[in-house]
């Protein structure tokens, strides 16, 4: 059994920003949780760092993949109540921890002004190596650096303030998906249909998976069991970091 949180996450926040590396990352790990937030009245924005142009399992021409994957992510976001989806256009599979990346994420944080940020863990998950794509870990580390100290420091990337008028902003919580030290679960049983609808939107990525629904449902059932939820429940798990 995972030890309980020492600090409980906020019960409700007005705005959440989800920063992920690829189209579909948020849907595999967190779409059920996002659906609970939007259902409860929270505004959720997606910031996707790449267009997923290195993904896919068929003969789709590479130049078409970014267009397809952006459209798929827009459709998936709509399935869970998200309409604001932003793409930064970095190359898939080649994300590096640069100052430019930190600045660009900080810009979106200052624009959205979220109380909570969801991203991927910067730690490698040895028990499930597929969760630790290098882009995922880079995204998590860059986002954490943007949360602290960049976005809250008016003297970091001063051009964001002087040229773009974006005031500093402090994020209170960061939720890390695919973390080896997850300490918080969200019961997403009632959001299963919406999560699966979001995932099915990513045709270029899941069209070759005949039992997508069963696979994803089994993952969430195992997570719920691991965290002591009653039988028959489904859950998504996160490491919650308080950053304010």
UniProtKB/TrEMBL annotation:
Entry keywords, A to Z: Zinc
Species whose genome carries this gene: Blastococcus mobilis
Keyword DNA repair found: no
Pfam families associated with the record: PIG-L (PF02585)
GO annotation (BP), single: glycoside metabolic process
Gene3D superfamilies documented for this protein: LmbE-like (3.40.50.10320)
GO molecular function: hydrolase activity, acting on carbon-nitrogen (but not peptide) bonds, in linear amides
Record's protein name: N-acetylglucosaminyl deacetylase, LmbE family
InterPro entries: GlcNAc_PI_deacetylase-related (IPR003737), LmbE-like_dom_sf (IPR024078)
């Amino acid at each position: 059994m995972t030890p309980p949180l020492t600090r409980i996450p906020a019960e409700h926040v007005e705005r959440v920003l989800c920063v992920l590396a690829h189209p579909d990352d948020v849907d595999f790990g967190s779409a059920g949780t996002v659906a609970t937030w939007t259902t409860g009245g929270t505004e959720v924005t997606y910031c996707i760092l790449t267009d997923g142009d290195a993904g896919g399992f068929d003969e789709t021409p590479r130049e078409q993949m970014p267009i397809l994957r952006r459209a798929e992510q827009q459709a998936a976001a709509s399935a869970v109540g998200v309409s604001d989806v932003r793409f930064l256009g970095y190359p898939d599979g080649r994300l590096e921890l640069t100052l430019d990346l930190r600045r660009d994420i900080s810009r979106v944080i200052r624009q959205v002004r979220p109380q909570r940020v969801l991203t991927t863990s910067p730690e490698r998950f040895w028990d499930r190596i597929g969760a630790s794509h290098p882009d995922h870990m880079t995204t998590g580390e860059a986002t954490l650096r943007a949360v602290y100290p960049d976005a809250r420091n008016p003297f970091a990337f001063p051009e964001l303030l002087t040229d773009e008028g974006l005031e500093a902003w402090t994020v209170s919580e960061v939720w890390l998906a695919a973390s080896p030290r997850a300490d918080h679960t969200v019961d997403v049983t009632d959001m299963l249909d919406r999560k699966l609808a979001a995932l099915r939107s990513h045709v270029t990525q899941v069209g070759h998976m005949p039992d997508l629904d069963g696979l994803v449902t089994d993952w969430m059932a195992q997570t719920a069991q691991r965290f002591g939820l009653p039988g028959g429940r489904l859950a998504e798990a996160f490491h919650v970091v308080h950053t304010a």
